[in-house]
Model the fold of this input.
Amino acid sequence: MSRLPRPVAIALLALVVLLAAYPLYGAWLFPAKHAFLMQKITGIMILAIMAMSLDLLVGIAGMVSLGHAAFFGLGGYMLAILSPEYEAANIWIVLPAALAIVAAVAAIIGALSIRTTGISFIMITLAFGQMGFYFFNDSRLAGGSDGAYIYVMPAVEIAGISLMNLENKLVFYYLVFGLFIGAYLLLKVLLASPFGRVVQAIGVNESRVKGLGFNPDHYKLVAFVIGATIAGLAGFLGAAQYGFVNPAMLSWHQSGTALVMVILGGMGTIFGPALGAFVLELARMGFEGMTEHWLLPMGLFVIAVVLLLPKGLAGLLLQLGAKPAPEPEDEA
Amino acid sequence: MSAPKSSPESSIVLETRELTKAFGGLVAVNSVSIVVREGEPHAVIGPNGAGKSTFVNLLTGHLPASGGQVLFRGRDITSLPAHRISRLGIGRSYQKTNIFPTFTVFENCRLAAQSRLSSSMRFFRPARALADVNARAERAMELAGLAARSGRVAGTMSYGEQRQLEIAMVLATGPDVLVLDEPLAGMGREESERMVTLLKGLAAQYTLVLVEHDMDAVFSLAHTLTVMVNGTLLESGPVDVVRASQAVQDAYLGDGAEAY
Done:
């Protein structure tokens, strides 16, 4: 299950190469829109990180969260709050601090939510997400409903020597690209580990996991915190990219979008939700360019994909890429 | 097979004392006391609704008791959560097939074996690299007669094989006591026979507690028999004695014994 069929792996690798090389051919292929597209793709990779992190909860552990954006937004707000106003923050301080805070908040929210399942879990995560939204919307912290600007990108330096200049769009593109691939690989390693196997089993049959002698709550909580922290990283990058945070980052709308990416892409496959992020965002871009009423075709598009591909884009790929299954031997 | 030992206190593995479970006004298990001794296969029988499954759920912590005690090797384990009881060495199988249908047979067993690690909070090394866990999974598959099915996705196997897997998973947890909830439920003739052979082999190595409907199987496997009716214990003792008991004859076995 965990090993991808070879044709699928090759196809995904080709997409990754396409992505890695975009800055090389983008200017030549889309001379008029290159800068815009590069920024767009950077943004999509950030959303893809968030979608993959949500897949750990939804697709793997079977915890459908509608409050995942709270951690995305919190990660972004932490950058805004921890950065000095007119100078560069030290990334070695702000990034770990932001992730630690996201993880701590996720541990509390998770501990309170994890015991519920199904609809109750959806509702409780939605409620926590909205609490996060209104916390930043109504407080004076970081500009309330207006949001806040991050005027200077964090500095990546060791002993005063700058390692990367994040203000450079190309550098930032590759930083996000690296973290996007890194997040995918991290999740794959986690899923293959003893911890990951238990979490996957919880998604399939939680009561049996308990009967085998595992305490599912512990594993669900750790998975929740890991997923939230990765989403926090995505939010941090998003805030850095746009130099701006506002409460909408935490809204249930954002959580819902991430969930659509997961479902559209194919739950439980990790690479599927990343694909889902690209397809959804590119489709949105296409429809936006065609009509002012882009939400209508967009909605129809999502409905069509979900109806035609119940296992998402990943399901389609896996089906196409699967070897003609060796006939199950003798079934007496 | 180890001969049934005559009963010194030390050989008592599992014991219930006036174990009771009420769901609202309905008393599903009413003050049931039984003794399970080391190496003596113990069967619990009774008509539908007798409270057998509830009893198993109480033994294994899947339901909290309303009253009474469960003792495992003299230790009070009443109402410990299921995962703690499993870790003490009481493995159970389920009446309704309860496996991970999307995992392979091996992975089902591997996960069961993995449950015996002191903790599975290990994040970076692949689970497949745990050699002793793999070895225990392999052994369990072999014991349950599934070695040749290792790579099959569990949900695609026949019903009988899935029941075997159910047993293999329990074995992979390395239990002392096997609590098997209707291992023959829903099986055809041939599958049943295979399972009974398997269970006989297991009875030589483990202490079995068997909840079953199939009387032939019960009589060929069990040394001790507990009969439950309407949540209460009717009779408990050596198979021959219980079989001969007038109360059991009247209430349960009667003339319709073969009907089960």
Observations:
- The beta strands of chain A are 148-149, 156-158, 161-164, 244-245.
- Chain A touches chain B at residues 1, 189-190, 192-198, 201, 204-205, 207-216, 218-219, 222, 328, 331-332 (CB under 8 Å).
- The CA atoms of residues 86 and 151 of chain A lie 6 Å apart.
